[in-house]
Amino acid sequence: MWHQQKLANGLRLITVSVAGTKAITVLALFGVGSRSETLKENGISHFIEHMMFKGTERRPTTLDLSRELDSVGAEFNAYTSRDHTGYYIKVDAQHSLLALDMLSDMLTHSKFDSGELDREKGVIVEEINMYQDNPTMYVEQLFEETLFANHPLGRDIAGEAAIVKKFDRPMLLDYRDKFYIPRNGIVVLAGRIDNKTKRAAVEYFGKLGLSKKQAPAYEKFKFGPGGQTGKGKKIGLKFKETDQTHLVLGFPGLAYDDAAGPATSLLNLILGGTMSSRLFIEIRERRGLAYMIRSDLNRYHETGNFLIQAGLDSRRTAEAVKVILDELVKIKKDGVTKEELQRAKDNLRGHMVLSFENSSAQAEWYAKQALLMKKVETPEERLKKFTAVKAEEIQKAANQIFDFKKLRLAVIGPYKTEETPAGWLKI
Q1: What is the pTM of this model?
Q2: Distance between CA atoms of residues 314 and 164, nearest Å
Q3: CA–CA separation, 33 and 22 (whole Å)
Q4: Shortest CA distance to 128 belongs to which of 163, 83, 103?
Q5: CATH superfamily of 235-424
Q6: Catalytic residue among 37, 41, 49, 327
Q7: Segments of the chain with pLDDT less than 50
Q8: Which of 6, 72, 133, 159 is such that its CA lies 20 to 30 A from the CA of 199?
Q9: Between the CA of residue 388 and those of 84, 272, 354, what are the distances in Å?
Q10: Active-site annotation holds for 126
């Protein structure tokens, strides 16, 4: 059971009662991420997320924050994506007032101390280096960079080291004040919630201040010949002396509210979303070409992508890519069987049932629905849409998305020119 209200300052507050739990999750989600940034600001959304944990006026240091939460066994963290940033605290419900006080304090009174800021630059630069040194982690970023060309959606969420090093306190505060405004945020309480907790949430998050400002609009993406500006490339390549070739190939995908979303989610499960999916069986089990092979979806406000990722023996990469492309052609031509579709529906239902026993999953579900979608749907309402999907809708989605003229490929491995990877894409 969930309830939504708008506070006097414009912030939306959602409460979700979860039966059978003794925990509560408090999640604050704001509509700001790497796509909100200019090139000179690349990485600033992520940087601000880090600085929120560096002390407030009442809790001056990181240790003051963490020690208070650790003393009650709380789980707490934050994350930055391309179009939203989230902060959460999960605690025993008897400590719900502490979670509300702590999270609202961080959002309204973080100090952004200049000394902490300078130290954090080093931390984030090392985070960037860690991801770039790990091909399995970095190849998806290379794919989105290739697909979205020079659009903000293609930039690294953590930013570039040279840009991050130039951030200063006034720059961070100016950016924060543009986007961390009540009308651009959602706060969700999920779990064991009583009336005292609800009243306290209104009081604490009503302190975010009265503001009629709207957050700046984001730059929309539209896929065109050669990419966003005509300068995009079909292949993104990073040379690295690796034993494996790490690659992602994929296509522009669907927006959050696209009507074909349920069919596309099921298509993903059937193609490469499980250990019994077509790609897993063909690439790994029958041919032994990869340890890791998967498909996945990313969705944004006006676009998205559908990707396939694999780590492959460099001597057999061409063979593996051919099998992947053959599977895409096959699913476009022949569709899926009723048995495959039913298994995918059952898998999705089971996954959702298990996931939503957790107050954190409930909080994230409703926060993202409210912030990113046109309408908030309950898990039960969404499941009805999945259940209603027909096999022909899966095939239609496959033909809509798997347009080989729009295929993009990202590769990290022992290749100094695009000649070899380009040869893999002959269909």
Answers
A1: 0.95
A2: 35
A3: 32
A4: 163
A5: Metalloenzyme, LuxS/M16 peptidase-like (3.30.830.10)
A6: 49
A7: 227, 229-230
A8: 72
A9: 30, 21, 21
A10: no
